[in-house]
Amino acid sequence: MVTGNDTTGDAVDGVKDGRTGDDERAARRDEAVRATVEQGLLGPDSPIVGLLDVTGIRESAAELRAAFDAVTAPGTPVLHAFAVKATPLVPVLRLLHETGIGAEVASPGELALARAAGLPPDRTVLDSPAKTPTELRQALALGIAVNADNPQELDRLDALMRSAPSRSPLGIRVNPQVGAGAIEALSTATTTSKFGVALRDEGAREWAVRAYLERPWLTRLHAHTGSQGVPLSLMARGVAETYELAEEINHRIGRRQIDTIDIGGGLPVNFTSDATTPTYAQYARLLSEAVPGLFDGRYGLVTEFGRSLLAKHGTVLARVEYTKSAGGRPVAVTHAGVQVATRTVYAPGAWPLRIAAYNAKGRPKTGAEVVQDVAGPACFAGDLLAEARALPPLEQGDLVAALDTGAYYFAHHYAYNSLARPGVYGFAPDGSGGVAFATVREPQSLDAIVAESGGAHASALTTLPVPGHR
Ligand SMILES: *Cc1c(COP(=O)(O)O)cnc(C)c1O
Questions:
Q1: Of 5, 44, 128, 445, whose CB neighbour count within 10 A is largest?
Q2: 124 with 254, same domain?
């Protein structure tokens, strides 16, 4: 376990009895793995589960709120809207809502999840790049905040605002074009990114100023410049440029028309150890130094963190079905592969995951490490959770855990080979030395797989006319 790079010294992740919050999270995970076996959630006929550490999620939510409270002027309205795409599970959204966290949604499905979780419209922000007229009309009717992605979408908002008044706070998403991070597919602020109004393009800045001048109801400005792989300094530059544009617009209009800045999410996550780094406190402090005017109380704030709130609180746990050897390399064939770790399997260089080995009783495995492959159940050669990884020798019936998978992993099922979506369970200490579980999502049944795969339309294609036959 690595604890050395926790450099923040903050009370929220401080040391208790010589253990950091990160140590405690790792210990809770080990206890939950054992309890998963003892309580029968994992077994020969349910060989894979997703686990969520509810205590850890609560702690991260509290750390996020405390980090921004520490740098904002008293009384500043701050909405932390969890990016639903990171973990689109209704009970997770409800838990976050109860800890004071709202929801950022980017599709009709995500909005439906947020509403099912009980998120009120004033705690919800809609941001997708491809909103239909119906979606926009419904969002405005509900009073949900909307950030327009482009001039054509703004035209649609114009028409809707003419036809009916709305309580929705409305804004425009800009792309400050500050550059890419280490993962191209996740870099939202490149010159040619598909998101928002590209601010450095010719005429774009002037267009944005005019857009606000002509629409007194445009009161927000939005940018989301980071994600995994983007350095904090670059994220801070994106926020600084967005703030400067808001200042310029308000100055040109002669009043504080933009009253809220949405700085997006994107805090990167450490996938190499149990250490939480960077922390929300570090990022909030960096922003307050780089863009002090944003925190002096003149602007309300919206944030949209996703991965950093959930990633470290999720674990995929799967049984080793078989072990074998190929070309001299040991291979453990498990039930966790591309269906739950799609990015890792297809882009292992960008998305390596830590793997922990447990024995059949759910106790951490020890013993001299051996270089081995950890394979998934799907029928293609590249379905590897980890390649050439040094781990204690895995045996049939052991368990492997893919760590830090609470965001963009088991909640993002990929239906290759019609593999079933695993059950997802939240856990917390039960107060008497054990672990309590709650079902977040049932394992997908075979009937559900058939129904999703056109089961109700079995003869649909054979009843179409056949050319040349009558
Ligand atoms: C994906 C996304 C987020 C969340 O990003 P994370 O890297 O998960 O924090 C926030 N805002 C918008 C607009 C997004 O597209």
A1: 128
A2: yes
Single residue among 309, 326, 352 that ends a domain in this structure: 309
Residue 449 lies in a domain: no
The total domain count for the chain is 2
Assess if residue 455 is contained within a domain: no
CA of 422 to the centre of ligand 1 (A): 25
List, run by run, the mean pLDDT of 10-residue segments along the chain (470 residues). Answer: 38 63 96 98 96 98 98 97 98 98 98 98 96 97 97 97 96 89 72 86 94 98 89 93 97 98 96 97 97 98 98 98 95 98 97 98 96 97 96 98 98 97 98 97 98 98 90
Asked whether 335 lines ligand 1 (CB < 6 A), one says no
Token code pair at residue 398? 């052991």
Q: Does a structural domain hold residue 2?
A: no
**Of 249, 282, 309, which closes a domain?**
309
Q: Report the C-alpha gap between 7 and 277 in whole angstroms.
A: 8
Nearest residue to 440 (alpha-carbon basis) of 69, 117, 18: 117
Atom 15, ligand 1: residue with shortest CA distance: 224
My answer on whether 260 and 383 are in the same domain is no
406 in contact with ligand 1, CB cutoff 6 A? no
- Taking each helix axis from N to C end, the angle separating 232-253 and 204-213, rounded to the nearest 10 degrees, works out to 50
Q: Does residue 328 sit in the same domain as residue 425?
A: yes
User: What distance in angstroms lies between residue 260's CA and the mean position of ligand 1's atoms?
Assistant: 18
pLDDT at 190: 76
290 shares a domain with 367: no
What is the pLDDT at residue 191?
Answer: 79
Q: Which atom of ligand 1 is nearest to the CA of 307?
A: 8
Atom of ligand 1 nearest to the CA of 85: 1
